[in-house]
Amino acid sequence: MREIETFTGLVSALLLVTVCLSCGQRAAAPYAPAIDPANFTSNITNPYFSLPVGKTFTYEGRVKDGAELVQIAVTNDTRTVMGVTTRLYHDQVWLNGKLHEDTRDWLAQNGQGDVWYFAEDVDNYENGVFKDHGGSFTAGVDGALPGIWIKARQVVGDVYRQEYYRGRAEDMRRIVAVDQTVATSLATYRGCVKTYDWTPLEPTLKERKFYCPQVGGEVVTEDLTAGEKLELTSVVVP
User: Fold this and answer.
1) CATH code for 41-236?
2) What pLDDT, on a 0 to 100 scale, did the predictor assign at position 129?
3) 157/31 Cα distance (integer angstroms)
4) Which helix (H) or strand (E) holds 10?
5) How far apart are the C-alpha atoms of 6 and 178, rounded to whole Å?
6) In the predicted model, what is the mean pLDDT of residues 86-95?
């Protein structure tokens, strides 16, 4: 009888291990978002990130290397990526008056109101001199896939990929809080969502951001490692 009980226990343990291994395999399923071009539009109206053509944002702040100025323009340029018509979100960073980064982000919104990130063309500069294209990716090319820039429905604890190009672009986001009030030198904003952004490719790069419906965009970015902050100083809506 003792031998039968022992054998039964071993079988149960093996079954448990098998089930657990199966669960682990499901949890570790590869990232593979389903993209239906018919479900997307280049007309981006997300309340936290609305991008009509002609809208511009300006951000300013002090960083360890000096004065930083960020200028962003929503243009009429479009590009087809994975069959989806995307809109250009042109982001330029200036450091002490010299161009530091020139980025062309290609975005589209799905039927649920979520803004997706399909491609990023990056020109990096050092002291105003071109350096490289590090961080660039195009969904559908060389295994790269799109991610979500920001969702329409904000749920605390929600975590999602913003982009995925293995080993080169793997930004992640977690929703930290909703209905936040944020005061800047330009204005006080209410109903904002607070995010925590990071990437496993640069463990020390950790950012906190605030997106506010009064602006339809980001109003503050805080570098949690360096203690630096960028604030919205101007927004122009056509």
Assistant:
1) 2.40.360
2) 86
3) 19
4) helix 2-27
5) 54
6) 97
3-class state of residue 225 by DSSP: coil
Neighbours of 167 (CB within 10 A): 8
Pairing mode, if any, of strands 66-81 and 228-236? unpaired
pLDDT at 125: 93
Q: Minimal CA–CA distance to 199: which of 172, 174, 221, 222? A: 172
CB 122 within 8 A of CB 154: no
The residue type at 141: V
Beta bridge partners of 220: 210, 231
Tell me the one-letter amino acid at 185: S
Q: C-alpha angle with apex 80: 196 to 217, nearest 5 degrees?
A: 30
Asked if 195 contacts 179 with a C-beta cutoff of 8 angstroms, the reply is: no
Q: What percentage of the chain has pLDDT greater than the value 90?
A: 80
Percentage of residues in the chain with pLDDT exceeding 70? 88
Question: Per DSSP, what are the bridge partners of residue 208?
Answer: 196, 222
Query: What count of other Cβ atoms lies within 10 Å of the Cβ of residue 188?
Result: 11
Q: What share of the chain is helix, strand, coil (3-state, %, to 5)?
A: 10, 55, 30
Q: What is residue 23's predicted lDDT score, i.e. its pLDDT? A: 39
Q: For residues 141 and 137, give the distance between their C-alpha atoms in angstroms, rounded to a whole number.
A: 8
Q: Where are the domains of the chain?
A: 41-236
Residues ≥6 apart with Cβ < 8 Å to 71 = 56, 57, 58, 91, 92, 94
Write out pLDDT tens, residues 146-200.
999 999 999 999 999 999 999 999 999 999 999 999 999 999 999 999 999 999 9
pLDDT at 133: 87
The token pair that represents 137 in the structure block:
């990716």
Q: Yes or no: say if 213 and 225 are a contact pair by the CB < 8 Å rule.
A: no
